[in-house]
Write a structure and sequence with these properties.
By secondary structure, the chain is α+β, with helices and mostly antiparallel strands. 42% of the residues lie in helices and 27% in strands. The longest helix has 23 residues.
Length: 142
């Protein structure tokens, strides 16, 4: 499937990660996006490999799996792959499509450019990572 720039921009605008980004910024991000059409039960990101991309789910569902255990199920508007892209270390989980899935992908160099050009994206990523860390911390307290 090939998305138009307008449809890609619309999908980006629906992702909470890009909630604070204006139309011009969304269009600039859309220019850097590559579509990844994934059949069901395919690995999109492999645990232990260095990541070369960041992904936003446009359609479909994926499972986040670490050492054979499903940690989360993600759907449209969710994202994954940011940790390895940010720190250059191996991915700490595997992401597998549960059904046919369309991802919007940003290569590492494009992800870094977007974060530099769009401070609101950097702030949204920091907030999401802080929320995930808080959830893990709270889960270990109980």
């Amino acid at each position: 499937m090939t998305l138009t720039r307008e449809r890609t921009t619309q999908l980006l605008s629906e992702a909470r990660l890009f909630a604070g980004v204006d139309a011009h910024g969304l269009a600039r991000i859309a220019d850097r996006i590559t579509e990844l059409d994934v059949p069901a039960d395919r690995v999109i990101a492999r645990q232990g490999e260095i990541g070369t991309g960041f992904f936003i789910i446009a359609e479909g569902l994926v499972r986040v799996v670490r050492d054979g255990e499903t940690l989360a199920v993600l759907g449209p508007g969710d994202f994954f792959g940011e940790l390895s892209v940010l720190d250059g270390k191996p991915r700490n989980a595997q992401v597998v499509s549960s059904e046919p899935t369309l991802c919007l992908a940003l290569a590492t160099w494009d992800f870094e450019a977007v974060v530099r050009e769009q401070p609101s994206v950097a702030l949204a990523i920091l907030r999401e990572l802080a929320g995930r860390l808080r959830n893990l911390t709270e889960a270990h307290r109980h």
